Amino acid sequence: xxxxxxxxxxxxxxxxxxxxxxxxxxxxxxxxxxxxxxxxxxxxxxxxxxxxxxxxxxxxxxxxxxxxxxxxxxxxxxxxxxxxxxxxxxxxxxxxxxxxxxxxxxxxxxxxxxxxxxxxxxxxxxxxxxxxxxxxxxxxxxxxxxxxxxxxxxxxxxxxxxxxxxxxxxxxxxxxxxxxxxxxxxxxxxxxxxxxxxxxxxx
Length: 203
What we know:
Helix content: 25-40%
Membrane topology: Single-pass membrane protein
Keywords: Glycosyltransferase, Membrane, Transferase, Transmembrane, Transmembrane helix
Strand content: 5-15%
Largest sheet: 3 strands, mixed
Structural class: alpha/beta
Order of helices and strands: EEHEHHHEEEEEH
Strand order of the largest sheet: 1-6-5
Protein name: Hydroxyproline O-arabinosyltransferase-like domain-containing protein
Main location: membrane
Number of domains: 2
Number of helices: 5
GO cellular component, one term: membrane
């Protein structure tokens, strides 16, 4: 499972091992810190909440048969979480990520946590050891190459700038001093748009 804002840096091998799927550990998915809430959906007879992996549903490599079992539970847990005011408020936009992690644990499925599966610029500076660049965060910099996160930079790449139309071809490259991961991201976007026939027709 992948997302539209994933760019594959290099061919992705099968990181899963048999019935142990592979997933990326997200620092903000913290089951043990949210035990009180998660017990509404993960009863004590299923074991400690630490059995819930700190993951979302993407990126994940999983057997089709396992996903077929997890998916209905994932949907139902998502709906129950959304209907619960406390849970919806606590989890917000990561609600479905928690729901996938809970559904997997309910089925006794544990994921192998792969830190090199994905990077997320601008916080991860290098792309040489990863397979996916996830451009979820805005990349804002001064012309001196200084990060201005939370403030629109003199140079920026942010997918939210293109909600109404796709990015143009030949985006400007970041200034010197910006992390390699950010430069690689923009270069790969430029490579893609240059090779998609009729790209300019969509703008």
